[in-house]
Every structure is written in structure tokens, then in C-alpha cells.
Amino acid sequence: MPLSSPAATARAVPDTRQRGLMALLLVVNASMYAVYMGVGSVLLPTQVAAIDPDHKVALLGLIGGVSSVFATACNPVAGALSDRSGRRNPWVLGGALASFAGLAFLGRVHTALLAGIGWCLVQGTMNVYQAAVTAIVPDRIPSDRRGTASALVGLALPVGGTLGVLVASASAEHLPVGYLVLGLVAAAAALLLTTMCRDVPRAQDAVPAPALPWRRRAAVFLSALRSRDFRWAFVGRALMVLGYFSVVGYQLYILDDRISLPKGLSPAEAMAVLTPVSMAAMAVSTLAGGLLSDRWNRRKVFVGVSAALAGIVMVVPVLVPTWPGMLVFSALNGLAFGCFMAVDTAVVTLVLPRAEDAARDLGVLNIANAGPQIVAPFVASAVVTAFGGYTPLFLFGGALSLLGALAILPIRGVR
Fold first, then answer.
1. Whole-number Å distance between alpha carbons of 16 and 144
2. Which CATH superfamily is 4-198+219-407 part of?
3. Which of 127, 143, 279, 315 could form a disulfide with 75 if both were Cys (CB 3.0 to 4.6 A apart)?
4. Distance between CA 162 and CA 275 in Å, rounded?
């Protein structure tokens, strides 16, 4: 079935309900990014540094690498199961409540092993939540409004990221409180969506599909990658996200070990300054990129230019390793990443191979989105350890972003 099918269904929904749905999508995605950014950028690095300050870089990388298995596996599996069930809300609410439990556990542990187990649980359950939330856009939003919808979803990163980092920075001395607050934010957002936006069950086959061997199931899960356009979108997203989060995930340690901060400003407090700067710039470019890409019906130029800019600005902290340099870097990096994520999301929804497999295929795409975010600490720690410092890390992240810009060029189905 062509992708126009869910678009046609979505057009039958009144505009007022679509606007309400878009607002809810902003809320639920923002809560997700609040967890990812608050925990990944502040709470978990702080916790790891307290557990073992001498080996914090390697230990954070190890925890991130192991938890990536749970994140990347749970997302497409949950997406496929929500496709099969024909509903999204149970997966959204169930994932959020399970994540709250995982965050509560994580806030109470004092060993590296238990911290790793807790972060694996949170990553796995948050990816169940993310898979179902992501599928709502192709389910309910017409193709000619995907750019606007994607802009609002993209706006969730600066909104949620700022909220998460501010909460985490304020509770850096009281980690259990920070974990609980972020868990409550995600659970409340999921409850709001599932209460205000009722599921529209999709038609199910009268005859159940026959059971398949596990190898065949894996091939079916990844079948979208046989589509040339989808495959290049996957590669571009993975490179860009890995480059971005390789640096952002270690920003607390970079501020502590490399940057001379103003007197009286702690690394956690510096994060509470840099993150709103980056996220405000991201919000501007997210909205501008999404709306302009709809108006001009052009997507690739926005994605390619923003990814290239993200690669170039990585040299700023290398050339100017100062507090003002970090402020400039944060603003420019936010501009680039916000535009990329907003418009690239629209690109992805337009190159999905089959509408009826939207959640499953977006789950595969989310491997390129969630996987690199979690793998990034492992990769970054290897770069820092192997090459001795954070300068190679900035250059590595910049190179990945530039490669991500090149990956958009072979896509043919989107202008």
C-alpha cells in the first residue's frame, strides 16, 4: 500500500483535532528527551564519577555500550508489536510507567554494575515508549503537513533537553530526586496523551500471519533497509546522531577537565547555562527548517547544509577552548542539529516503503536515532582513551557529521 494511505486517513481528521494531536506529540516527545538528556548528560555521568572518579570515562563508555543492546533491540521489536496490535497508547503508557520504575531504581544504586543494569532497563523501556510515539506521525498526519509536524516533534528536543538538564543540574547533589522527577515527567506525559488522544485501531487481518523462524523474522524487521532511499536516510541519521552525542554525552567531563570555567561556576552549573543556549538555537532552527521545507517543498538542501554546519562547528572548541568558545559552539551546534532533526524526520516519513509497516520501519530507523545516542559514550571513551584527550573527540564528531551530510545526496524520492 502506498504511503498516501495514512495521509488520506489523517486528512479525514478535523484540523482542530490535528492541532491538538500535534501539541500532544510535542509534550510526549519532550518528556522523552528530558529523560535522555537529563540522565545521559548530567545524572549518569555524575553518578559514575562518584562511583569511580579515576576511571569515569571508560566506565561511562562501558555502561553506554552495554545499554545500547537493549535500546536498539527494544525499539524495532516494540514497533512491530504495536503494528500487530493496531494500537499505540498501551505501548506509550506501559513504556513510560516501566521507565519510571527503572529510573527510581537507578537513583538508589551505588555500584557500577547496578548503575549499568538500571540504565539498561531505562533505555529498553524508553525505546518501547519512543517506538509507539514515533509511529503516530505517519499514522495520523497527512504528508503535506509532515514538515510542520516534524518541526514540532523536533522542537521537543530543545524543550525537553533543556527541562531535563535543568532538573538534573539542580538535583546533581541529590541524584534520587532528579531521577524520580524525570520519571514522573515521562509518566505524566504518557498519561496525558493516552487520555486526551484515543487510539484509532487499525484493521487487522482476518487470518493471523503464520509464525516465522527467527531468522526470517529478523529479515522482515530489517526489510525496509532494502529500500535505497530509506537505507541512505538511515545511514545519514546514524552518522549525524553519533557525531552529535559523542560530544554532548561527554560535555560534563569536557567542562570539568578541559575548559577553564568562570570562578564559582561548577561543571553542572555550566551545563545548566550551555544547554538552554543550545536548545534555544535548536528551537529556532527546528521551527524555521520545518516550516520552510514545507513551503518550498524542499527537504534535502536543509538536511545536507545543517549536517555540514554541525561538522564544521566542532572545530570551535578546538581552536577556542574557553568558556566563550563553548557558548559559541553550543549556539551554532544547536542551530545545525535542530534543523537537521526537524527536516530529516520529514524526509524519513516520506521514504517509508509501506504504510502498514510504519511503526516497524520507524523502529528500524530509530536504531539509527536511539542506538548512536547510547553507543556514543562507548565510542567517545575509546577515542579519548586511544588518542589522549578531547580534541580528537571534537574532530571525530565533526567528521561523522560531514559524512552524514554526504549521505543525503543519493536519496532520490525526496527533493
1. 16
2. MFS general substrate transporter like domains (1.20.1250.20)
3. 127
4. 6
